[in-house]
Every structure is written in structure tokens, then in C-alpha cells.
């Protein structure tokens, strides 16, 4: 998460406002926070991010450079400097333009009808990222929750993803199996479906295109994509489309309808096979289910279980 959504006001007694002032930034202003850290506007188009999660590495900076050099039709993060203060990593980055496309579905109710502005914006972002070729640095990244580069030992994205599914299921799959019928057979069906996917040229994958991670201008056009790192890699652009359709609205009353509508839209407009999108959605649920906890107190675990229960690849062997 590179520049989290803006907040309305600074929380009281933020110690980093004083520390940033001591470091030469007396006008620092807290503008948001996410799972990876807190972001402060410094002025002159720069922000400071104080990391509480996994900090960026030189590999992260290389990935940012690889994306930027292909000039996608929106701004992407750029790290100018990395410092460490009392064991805490602080990055100084470019401030990205625009405002979040909308809030997160965990905090606001999405309307039943998807607007043309949102549909077109998502298609623009997916096309833009699909125009950026996958790079060696992207292949060397690890997905959050895993302990090895996604592509290590593999030449095809579906095979690398299948290996990740196996590792993720080995972590706490028994807990997930308590909520999903015929779990082991469903995992096997997913792995078989991944193995049957064709090899395609890989592109930059963001992997977490929830609405707050897409910034738009006043007309609703995407002007920035942020928060790379959670599932960033080089991969099949259909994977990006599949995940985006599933996570656009995760918790609202019309979430299932929105996922189905966006999956169909991306298949039609971007030329992806519906069954390919479906197997990638199963793989995403199987590889992220335990990253935020495994109880009803965290919404992601039951969301993943529900995704699997109604995923046609996971629940039966043959999908047209």
C-alpha cells in the first residue's frame, strides 16, 4: 500500500508528526493509513510512508521502475529514498494524484447498479496494467503470506500459482475445510484446472485493485494506481481481471451480483475465457484465506470460504 485513502482529519497525538518535523518536515500532515503503514503529505509532491508491515526492498523499487518505464495511462508509485529511524522504515515517495474511486465495501454500501463510470474505469486500469510486460523483478517477488518468490522453479504462471495454492492450503487448510464441503476434492479440481490453462505472455499484476487503490480525477478517469505489493507479480492478465471482479465489492448486499456482472464484463470486453476467470478466483481464495485471521471476527476468511462454496471450478470437475 503506497498511498492509502485520504482521511478527514489527523488523529490526536501522532508521534510521527513530531519526528518528521525534527527530520525537516514541519508541515507534515497525516493523510491516511493501511495495513502496511501510515502516509504523511510533506508538500512539493512528496509523501512519507512510515511502515508497520513488510517494508519495501530494492526489488520493490525495481518493480516500480519497470512499470513506470512502460508509461501506463495512470501514475504509479515511485520511491525516492528509504531511511530507517529507530528500527522503523520510512520511505519518501511521489504523491499520487486523484482521489479514491470509492470507499471500501466493508465501510460503505455499494449501489445495486454498477455505474458506467466505474465499469469503464476498471476496464481502463486492467488494460493499462496489461500493457506493461512482466519483468524479472516482478517474478522475484513473494506474495504476502508466502516465503518464496512466486515464480521460483517455474516457467509458467499457472504452474507457479498452483504451487502457491498447495503451499497455502498446507498452512491452515484444515481450518478452511471445516467451512467448505468436499474441500480436498475441490482443491484437486482447482489444481487440475490450473495445469490445463494455456501459457500466455505475462504482464504486470497488481493483485489488489480494490476501489481505494484506484485514484480518479473529477471526471472519474483513473489517474493513479497505488498499493502494489500484496499480490504483485508477473502473470496472466486474466488473473488480474478475475481477482478485480471478485474484490470490487466483497461485503455488500449485492456483492455476488457485482462479481458475476464484472466477471462477465471482463470476459466479453477483454477476451478472457469465463472458465479461466473462475479458476483464478478459486486460486485467489485458496491463497489468501488465512492472511488476516481465520475467524468470523475478520471478514476475509468467511469471504474466501463463500467464494469457494459457489465457485463452479472448485465445486465440480467439468466447467464449460
TrEMBL record:
Residue span(s) of domain Aminoglycoside phosphotransferase: 28-250
Organism: Streptomyces antnestii
GO molecular function, one term: transferase activity
UniProtKB keywords: Transferase
InterPro entries found in the cross-reference section: Aminoglycoside_PTrfase, Kinase-like_dom_sf
Highest taxon of source: Bacteria
Pfam family name, one: APH
Full protein name: Aminoglycoside phosphotransferase family protein
Amino acid at each position: 500500500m503506497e498511498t492509502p485513502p485520504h482521511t478527514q482529519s489527523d488523529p490526536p497525538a501522532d508521534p510521527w508528526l513530531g519526528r518528521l518535523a525534527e527530520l525537516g518536515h514541519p508541515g507534515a500532515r497525516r493523510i491516511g493509513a493501511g495495513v502496511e503503514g501510515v502516509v504523511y503529505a510533506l508538500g512539493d509532491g512528496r509523501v512519507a510512508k512510515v511502515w508497520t508491515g513488510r517494508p519495501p526492498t530494492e526489488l520493490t523499487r525495481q518493480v516500480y521502475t519497470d512499470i513506470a518505464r512502460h508509461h501506463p495511462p495512470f501514475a504509479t508509485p515511485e520511491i525516492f529514498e528509504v531511511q530507517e529511524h529507530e528500527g522503523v522504515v520510512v520511505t519518501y515517495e511521489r504523491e499520487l494524484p486523484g482521489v479514491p474511486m470509492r470507499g471500501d465495501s466493508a465501510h460503505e454500501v455499494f449501489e445495486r447498479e454498477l455505474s458506467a463510470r466505474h465499469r469503464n474505469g476498471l476496464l481502463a486500469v486492467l488494460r493499462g496494467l496489461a500493457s506493461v510486460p512482466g519483468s524479472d523483478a516482478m517474478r522475484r517477488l513473494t506474495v504476502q503470506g508466502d516465503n518464496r518468490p512466486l515464480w521460483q522453479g517455474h516457467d509458467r504462471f499457472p504452474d507457479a500459482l498452483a504451487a502457491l495454492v498447495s503451499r497455502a492450503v498446507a498452512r491452515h487448510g484444515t481450518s478452511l475445510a471445516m467451512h467448505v464441503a468436499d474441500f480436498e476434492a475441490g482443491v484437486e479440481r482447482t489444481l487440475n484446472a490450473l495445469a490445463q490453462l494455456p501459457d500466455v505472455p505475462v504482464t504486470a499484476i497488481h493483485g489488489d485493485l480494490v476501489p481505494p487503490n484506484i485514484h480518479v480525477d473529477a471526471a472519474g478517469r483513473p489517474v493513479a494506481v497505488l498499493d502494489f505489493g500484496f499480490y504483485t507479480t508477473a502473470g496472466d492478465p486474466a488473473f488480474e481481471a478475475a481477482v478485480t471482479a471478485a474484490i470490487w465489492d466483497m461485503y455488500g448486499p449485492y456483492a455476488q451480483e457485482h462479481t458475476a456482472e464484472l466477471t462477465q464484463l471482463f470476459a466479453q470486453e477483454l477476451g478472457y475465457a469465463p472458465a479461466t476467470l473462475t479458476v483464478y478466483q478459486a486460486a485467489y481464495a485458496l491463497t489468501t484465506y488465512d492472511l488476516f485471521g481465520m475467524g468470523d471476527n475478520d471478514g476475509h476468511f468467511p469471504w474466501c470460504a463463500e467464494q469457494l462454496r459457489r465457485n463452479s471450478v472448485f465445486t465440480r470437475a467439468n466447467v464449460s
